[in-house]
Design a protein that fits this description.
Length: about 50
């Protein structure tokens, strides 16, 4: 019902969250948290 009333969608946020989860899975073992943050910024284009 809410989808019919409100035209906004959280699809972009959900997609970005999913991409970050995939990066976390691949990045297991990063020694440096800054490299992990840079990888997220590179692949998603968002700031942390």
């Amino acid at each position: 019902m809410a989808a019919a009333v409100y035209p906004e969608s959280n699809g972009k946020a959900e997609g970005r969250n999913n991409k970050i989860k995939l990066i976390k899975r691949r990045a297991y073992g990063y020694r440096n948290m800054e490299h992990f943050k840079l990888r997220i910024r590179l692949e998603t284009g968002c700031l942390i």
